[in-house]
Amino acid sequence: MPFRQPKSRPAASRRLRLAATLVTASFALGGVAAASAAADVVEVKLTAKHKKVKIAPGVHMKAWTFNGTVPGPVVRADVGDTVEVRLHNADQHMAHSVDFHAAQVSPQVVFRDVAPGATETVSFEVNQPGVFLYHCGTSPVLQHIGMGMYGAIIVDPIGGRPPANETVLVQSEFYGKLKNKGKTLKSSYKAMRTKDPKYTAFNGKAFRYQRHPIDVEVGEPQRVYVVAAGPTLGSDFHVVGEIFDAVQVDGNPANVLTGVSTYGVPAGGASLFELTFDEPGSYPFVTHAFRWADAGALGLFRAE
Ligand SMILES: [Cu+2]
């Protein structure tokens, strides 16, 4: 769900960022307007666990998750903050890990495997503003992402971002065979390696926002963070009936394109899209690689 940014945020709430990360199963965002000058520690608690999740209307999958949802929670920090990640691996059968694309660190140290049943805490400083993917980096990565282990991290620039209504869309795809009279997707590593996806989705469920459109206001600035989790497909992001006023490549305010109709977010990448709806209406958003829009990566903004 979109979240209207408050004009300011009490300084005392800085350590409560975790609360913001936990409400984001619904993809509401913690408000950020006036970033404080002091660097903070953003605590993120992740639990790797198996969970049966709904990935399409009437279809479930036994996923591997962060915190029981696909995608995992949205993490938010400011440039200069230290992100402290406590990863508990509740999976008794295999190792998991977390690779943050917002980090510039030794992967062998910070993205290291956490053994079954173990808990480890790592930290890194975020020095580039943007929107980035995080994902389980345990081998085979294709399988760990394909099973559902990914999410978004937003790093706000010094001074914050201007007020806007914000939405996070994580595009991904699911592979396997339908079983149980079409009610269960039995995912497989083999299908991830050799087949086309059965479903594509924004925020973990095919056609999610076609059935439940995202309500927005005419004339209000919109900021849409689009993350392409894959594991293999990117997103050719387009909003039917609109042109983006700006695209910030990787969500970095220094990387601005203007007047863009469709912009490709590569697998593993992310970008920030700015637009304003000038007229009431129902505006589809899609990956314009339409074969994959038809598989579920399609939704609606309802502007009133
Ligand atoms: Cu994993």
Features:
304 residues; mainly beta; Immunoglobulin-like; 2 domains; 5-stranded mixed sheet; 22 strands; 44% strand; globular; binds copper (II) ion
Note the topology.
Layout: E1 3-4, H1 17-22, E2 41-56, E3 59-66, E4 75-78, E5 82-89, E6 99-100, H2 107-110, E7 119-125, E8 130-135, H3 141-146, E9 150-156, E10 165-174, E11 177-179, E12 184-186, H4 189-194, E13 199-202, H5 208-211, E14 214-216, E15 221-230, E16 235-239, E17 244-249, E18 256-260, E19 262-265, E20 270-276, E21 281-287, H6 290-294, E22 298-303
Bound molecules: copper (II) ion (CU).
Copper (II) ion binds next to loops.
Describe this structure in words.
With 304 residues, the protein is mainly beta. It folds into 2 domains: 3-162, Immunoglobulin-like, CATH 2.60.40.420; 167-303, Sandwich (Immunoglobulin-like). It contains 6 helices and 22 strands. Strands 1, 10, 13, 15, 17, 18 and 20 form a 7-stranded mixed beta sheet that branches. A 5-stranded mixed beta sheet has the order 14-22-21-16-19. Strand 2 and strand 3 form a beta hairpin. The structure holds copper (II) ion. Residues 48, 64, 96, 136, 138, 144, 149 line the site of copper (II) ion.
